[in-house]
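EI: anyone free to look at a 122-residue chain?
SC: sure, send it
EI:
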Amino acid sequence: MHLKLNKPYLIITISLLITEVLIATYLKTGFIRHTFGDFLATILVYASFKSFFKINAIKLGVAVLLIAFTIEFAQLINVLKILNLENNYLIKTILGSTFQISDLVAYTLGLITVIILEFNLQ
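SC: here you go
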């Protein structure tokens, strides 16, 4: 893993971050908020790492998926309540507060999409 600025990934990261903020701000329910937002979240994390590090796509994809799954399973044990952060709107929005199997599927599909794109664009 080497530190190297990758401008296209940085642009993708900024675009996805703006999109996610808009989704979180203006959409409170529905497919785009609850499923598509999670799909995009894993792509955002992947792109943010690729913005600054030259790293193997599969290794990074697995790492991002592990991060996403860890956060989702932390919701299952209600880690925000354990840490007394359940009333912190920003943390609750970023980390989520309810465990859903569909979120795991969305994260996985997001990473599969990234990997397919990575290998087809090379």
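EI: The chain has one domain: 2-121.
SC: 👍
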